Amino acid sequence: MKNISQFMFGKMRYVAGSFCELRPIELITQGRSECCGNLRSFRGLIADLFKTGCSRLVYDMLWFYGWKANNMILSLVLAATSLPAEPLIPFDTLARGPSISAVAVSPDGARVATIEMNDGRSSIYEGELGGTRRLLYRNPARSIDNVRWSADGRWLFFLQDSGGDEGYHLFRLDRANPGEAADVTPFAGVVVELVSTPRGYAGPILVAINRRDPQFSDVFSVDLTDGQVTEVFRNDAQYTEFFADAQGRIRAAGRIVADGSLELWGRADGTSSLRRLYTAPANERFKALAMHADWRSIIVKSNRQSNFERAMLISLADGSQRPLRNGSCGRYDVDGVLQDQNGPLAVVCTRLAGELDPLRRSFGRDVRAVRPLVGAGSLSFESQSADGATTIFYSDASNRPGRFLIVRSGVASVFAETRPELASYRFAPSEPFRIRARDGMQLLGYVTRPLGQRVAGPAIVAVHGGPWTRDAGSFERETQFYANRGYTVIQVNFRGSTGLGKQLFEGGIGEFGGRMSDDVDDAVRYAVRQGWADADRVCIMGGSYGGFAALTGISRAGGFNYRCAVAYAGPADLATLVQAFPPSWQPFLPRSWYRFVGRPDQPDDVERMRARSPLTHVGNMRAPLLIFQGANDPRVRQDQSDRIVCSLRSRGVDVDYLLANNEGHSFANEETSLAITRATEEFFGRHLGGRVGDGTTQTANDALRTFRAAGRNITC
Questions:
Q1: In the chain, what percentage of residues exceed pLDDT 90?
Q2: pLDDT tens across 498-540, in order?
Q3: How far is the C-alpha of 210 from the C-alpha of 190, rounded, in Å?
Q4: Strands across the sheet with 100-105, in order?
């Protein structure tokens, strides 16, 4: 806002610029009586300024007069600067997940499979495109989050674990037999992963299974017609990923060696031996994405000789590299590259929000066709028919629930709204902000303020998990739930986050519990200075790494003084965390956890990890704490939460422990999500004073009682 205010010592002159559409106002003041002698007119002025969009003047006036005004006058100003609160969205309406969460078009473009909610479980539906969809399969024990078509369109298949243990198996669905799912990889103690196959591949499903060696997988073909599982590639070289061609032959593979380097191996044909094509040292962000449709190269992304990851092609014949034309996201990392059987379609970027940068005119026409339905929101690719005539996109915005969009022969329309029950409600936008941390590192964050709030209020800093991921501008149910309850939600991409360049990513090395947490604290202090948050009413919450950050936030000395904390599956002891990772994770650790956190077999590393672990500093914990834990979590095992809870209980510190015996690291079932949301709503209401809805669901209440009872009954 230009020329909106001018300050002079001893007197104040306001000039409202044309941007505010307010006639010029000039107030000449000489002291307290002249400033605030007429309380009614002073309050009216404040209200008028807000009505005309000149809220900045109000903040300037508060700054100028705050040291002079008595409490009564200040309260009048604050009352005038608060607009009526948005209606409280009913718990049952806002706390539930989407009614539809995935869409897959059949290869011929005639049919569609979807993931839709059915009686508390995300289930698979199927039907004609544009027609009525029927329930094909519902697992009463656990929600399903993925579905794909076989190349011939006869079968559907999906991966699912048991109770969150991440021991995934491959299941087959026959459209002719609804309600039946066949486990075609019925092997005990294995993890099944899909092998990258190109568009147009028509052979058996290719999967990697760690049946022979718990750390390293071999490649198998699975015939969905008769269920036959056949080994097609014996992994004697400790590869961790595989890429097949249109004939189902493994043409490239990657592996991680002891020093954290990643080696890409490949072959120019399907019969010769694999040979090393490229070595990415530990300090190079590198990921192989897919075989190029020309079968002569593989598409990868790398930040070699750059601060940002860009797409490039590596020759399968000699390992030579060249950039993919227009394969950059500018000052952001490339997320991925979409392609069909004719080659690359688009570069996938997440700038402030998700975007698609077309590489081919035909795909660009589809993107332009959906643009009026996207507006300022994000756009991502969901599915496409084999001939490219039918494409499904997904779009949302920070203040708009998601929708699936369909383009058929160049004509765009809305396929489905993910949250139609929310159409009548307004949501708060998440505004990006950039700050410099205390050591100068530039950080990108987002703030979501309750609609109508114009003064500092209670706030929640929500720390993302990973930590090797990032926050972006998208519709987040949890963020909107807390904003509707009256909380400002602060999110920041602290060092170690991905997508924002090498400097930020590598800034997280050795900084678990250190500068990574400093960044979170710095974002909160910035929010306080901006008038977004009340410094005395800020809580910290997060899941996985975010749970670790929450525990760290209330236990480390010298940090921000958080009022309370919520930790979902939060590690408490870094050394035992890394020691207990499952066997299938071991090959990846030299490039991730060993590099960023430390090796549990190195005494110096163990000492540093313990110094940065919340369990070591549990004696500093005084703030109320709410902990969620899945009993089947293979990543952050239950003992991580149990040990924190037992220590706090022995000292009489307020801790509420919810233990879900049917969940793992991610909470899949609706009743779990409802119980967690209800518990946090009540918890923040007690400690931050926000709004709490009167009603909830019986499902949420029953699950909450069960989880709380399990948490009370742990053995300390």
A1: 85
A2: 999 999 999 999 999 999 999 999 999 999 999 999 999 999 9
A3: 6
A4: 100-105, 111-118, 121-128, 133-137
Domain of residue 558 covers 430-573+613-712
Angstrom distance (rounded) from CA 457 to CA 488: 7
Q: Secondary structure of the chain: what % helix, strand, coil (to 5)?
A: 25, 30, 45
* 179: enclosing H helix or E strand: none
The predicted structure's pLDDT at residue 82: 52
Asked if residue 64 and residue 38 are part of one domain, the reply reads yes
Domain boundary among 51, 80, 109: 80
Assigned domain for 606 exists: no
Number of domains, the chain: 4
For residue 130, how many other CB atoms are within 10 A of its CB? 12
Q: What are phi and psi of 627, to 5 degrees?
A: -120, 135
Examine the fold and report which residue of 307, 334, 361 is the final residue of a domain before the chain moves on: 334
- Please determine, for residue 30, whether its predicted confidence score (pLDDT) is greater than 60: no
**Does the pTM exceed 0.90?**
no
Q: Where are the alpha helices (DSSP H) in 555-669?
A: 574-579, 593-596, 603-611, 638-650
Residue 294 half-sphere exposure, CB side, CA atoms within 13 Å? Answer: 10
| Lowest pLDDT segment from 62-76, 90-104, 440-454, 522-536 | 62-76
E-only strand ranges, 425-529: 430-436, 442-448, 457-463, 488-493
Specify whether 386 is located in the same domain as 292: no
Count each helix (H run) and each strand (E run) in the chain, helices first. Answer: 16, 37
CA gap 308, 302 in Å, rounded:
8
Residue for token pair 């954290």: 260
In this prediction, residues 685-708 reach a mean pLDDT of: 93
Shared domain for 376 and 439, answered yes or no, is: no
**Sign of the alpha-carbon dihedral angle for 209, 212, 214, 216:** negative
User: Does residue 603 lie within any of the structural domains?
Assistant: no
Residue 194 corresponds to which tokens in the numbers above?
Answer: 């899909």
- DSSP H or E stretch at residue 229: strand 229-233
Q: Are residues 132 and 272 in the same domain?
A: yes
What is the pLDDT of the chain when averaged over all its residues?
A: 90
Tens digits of per-residue pLDDT, 606-619? 999 999 999 999 99
In tens, the pLDDT along 418-474 reads: 999 999 999 999 999 999 999 999 999 999 999 999 999 999 999 999 999 999 999
Instruction: Classify residue 557: in a domain, yes or no.
Output: yes
Residue keyed to tokens 């071999």: 218
Residue 588 lies in a domain: no
User: Given pLDDT bands bounded at 50, 70 and 90, which one contains residue 398?
Assistant: very high
What is d(CA 142, CA 463) in angstroms, rounded to the nearest whole number?
A: 27
**Is 357 found in the same domain as 280?**
no
3-state secondary structure of 70: coil
CB atoms within 10 A of CB 23: 7
Q: Which two tokens stand for residue 365?
A: 């026409």
